């Protein structure tokens, strides 16, 4: 579907993707302007729609592109041999911060996309988000040492509760950021508070 775009030289591909991510991250899907994207990418508008059918297709391609790049980078660094569940959570948090520092614009775009409520892309985004969760949750926690948990607890339910907690915390922080455009998220504080949650759950559920 995107063969024409993928046949471009890498520098031009990067310019277009970065311009799209920057515009979508700053304004959300509905308010993003393809005029601004082509201006930033230094291409003709007709060329953009030669590669992508419409703004929706460009947005979803950028989401898939960013997700794949960041996940590939993450798994190159992720230690799946660590048996301690909470050590893995801390590792995940640390790697997310490293990736954020390495790809700040891309990370910001994916954050904004995660909470974008545009009717044009929301259903497609929800499907993609669920697919990412389904395909990665097992990888992240395969082989953990269940004997470290307190006897008699429902480990599956505990892990689900923790995932809901972190997802809710992440969503809440992004919504607050959306209400204060121009004010950058304090990521150091964000990850420090996440670490406090991890310690709380470890004290509650480990022996």
UniProtKB/TrEMBL annotation:
The entry's DNA-binding region: 33-52
Q: Which domain of life is it from?
A: Bacteria
Asked if DNA-binding is a keyword of the record, the answer is: yes
Q: Which InterPro entries match?
A: DNA-bd_HTH_TetR-type_CS, Homeodomain-like_sf, HTH-type_TetR-like_transc_reg, HTH_TetR, Tet_transcr_reg_TetR-rel_C_sf
Q: Which residues form the HTH tetR-type domain?
A: 10-70
Q: Which GO terms describe its molecular function?
A: DNA-binding transcription factor activity; transcription cis-regulatory region binding
UniProt-listed Pfam families: TetR_N
Query: Which keywords, in A-to-Z order, does the entry hold?
Result: DNA-binding
Q: What is this protein called?
A: TetR/AcrR family transcriptional regulator
**What does the organism's lineage look like at the top?**
Bacteria, Bacillati, Bacillota, Bacilli, Bacillales
């Amino acid at each position: 579907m995107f063969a024409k775009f993928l046949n471009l030289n890498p520098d031009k591909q990067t310019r277009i993707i970065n311009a799209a991510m920057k515009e979508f991250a700053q304004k959300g899907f509905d308010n993003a302007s393809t005029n601004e994207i082509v201006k930033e990418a230094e291409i003709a508008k007709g060329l953009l729609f030669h590669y992508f059918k419409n703004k929706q297709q460009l947005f979803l391609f950028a989401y898939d592109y960013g997700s794949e790049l960041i996940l590939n980078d993450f798994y190159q660094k992720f230690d799946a041999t660590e048996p301690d569940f909470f050590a893995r959570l801390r590792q995940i948090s640390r790697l997310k911060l490293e990736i954020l520092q390495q790809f700040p614009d891309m990370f910001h775009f994916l954050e904004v996309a995660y909470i974008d409520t545009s009717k044009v892309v929301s259903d497609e985004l929800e499907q993609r988000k669920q697919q990412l969760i389904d395909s990665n949750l097992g990888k992240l926690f395969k082989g953990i040492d269940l004997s470290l948990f307190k006897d008699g607890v429902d480990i599956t339910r505990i892990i689900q509760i923790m995932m809901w907690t972190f997802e809710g915390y992440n969503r809440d922080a992004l919504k607050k950021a959306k209400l204060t455009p121009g004010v950058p998220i304090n990521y150091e504080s964000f990850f420090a508070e996440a670490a406090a949650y991890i310690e709380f759950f470890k004290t509650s559920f480990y022996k």
